[in-house]
Design a protein that fits this description.
It is built from two helices and no strands. The protein is mostly helical and 148 residues long. The radius of gyration is 55 Å and the shape is rod-shaped. Pfam families: GCN5L1 (PF06320). This is Biogenesis of lysosome-related organelles complex 1 subunit 1.
Length: 148
């Protein structure tokens, strides 16, 4: 963009042809041209300084935006990691609860099977009692018939 031959200092460096020649007359054409050259040189130095300052400012702002974006992305990742840990804890708790319910269900099934067996035995005993009662009545009736 700019020629590297221009000095970076703000002061004007006299060229060898300026030191060898006598100073131009003030208000003359040569003095005006020298003044224009001098003004142009100072403006270009000022513009270079402003450009460098704007460049540094833009870099700082880009770094800041990059940091904010990284924080936003990392925040989402961190939140996802925390949610994953919470879900894992919930899964473990649910697995323990399911295991406890399965044991309880097995106990209930055993208890109901025992109750069903007892009820069947009661039913069988009742049937046997009815059969015995019928047999006793039949025997009693036969004995009465024989006795008469």
């Amino acid at each position: 963009m700019y020629s590297p031959q221009l000095p970076l200092a703000r002061t004007r460096v006299a060229s060898p042809w300026e030191t060898e020649k006598p100073q131009p007359e003030p208000g003359g054409l040569e003095a005006s041209l020298l003044q224009l050259l001098h003004d142009h040189h100072h403006k270009s130095l000022r513009l270079r300084e402003l450009t460098e300052k704007a460049k540094k400012d833009a870099i700082k702002k880009a770094v800041r935006v990059s940091d904010l974006l990284m924080d936003a992305v990392n925040g989402g990742v961190q939140e996802s990691f925390i949610n994953e840990k919470r879900i894992e804890l919930e899964i473990r708790a649910l697995a323990a609860t399911i295991s406890r319910f399965m044991r309880q269900t097995d106990q209930w099934l055993t208890a109901t099977h025992a109750i069903n067996t007892a009820i069947k035995e009661i039913g069988d005993f009742e049937n046997w009692m009815k059969t015995m009662e019928f047999d006793c009545k039949s025997i009693n009736a036969a004995i009465r018939n024989i006795h008469q």
